[in-house]
Amino acid sequence: MVVSDTRGRSLLPRTRKTRALLAILAMSSPRPVLRAHLASLLWSRREQEQARASLRQGVRELQDCLGPDWNHLFIADRHHLSLRGPGLSIDTVELADSVAIAIDLLDKFKDRLLDDLDGLDPAFDTWLADARARLNRRGLAIGESILAASDAPSATLEAAERLLAIHHLHEGAWRAMIRSHAELGNLDAAIGCYDRCCGVLAEALDGRRPSPETEDLISRIRAQAAAASPPPAVEEPVAVINGGGWRSQRGEGSSVRVRVAPLRTFGDHQNESLAVGLTEEISAGLSRFRWISCVPAMSWRDAPVPYDPGSGALGYPWDMPEADLMLDGTVQHAPGRVRVIVRLVDLRAGGEIVWAGRFDREMSDPLALQDELGASIVARIDPELLRHEARRMNLAQQTGMTAPELLLRALPGVYRMEWQGFVAAGRLLEASLRADPSSSVAHGWLAYWNLLYVGQGWASDPAACIAEAGRLAERAVMLDPGDARALTLAGHVRGYLGRRPAEAIALHERAIALNPNLAMAWCFSGFAYSYLGDHEEALRRIDHAIRLSPADPHMFFFDMALVIVHLMRGDYGAAIDAGRRAVELNPLFSSTYKSYLAALGWQGLTREAQEVRDRLLALEPGFSLQQAVERSPFSRPEDVDRYAEGLRRAGLT
Question: Whole-prediction pTM value?
Answer without folding.
Answer: 0.57
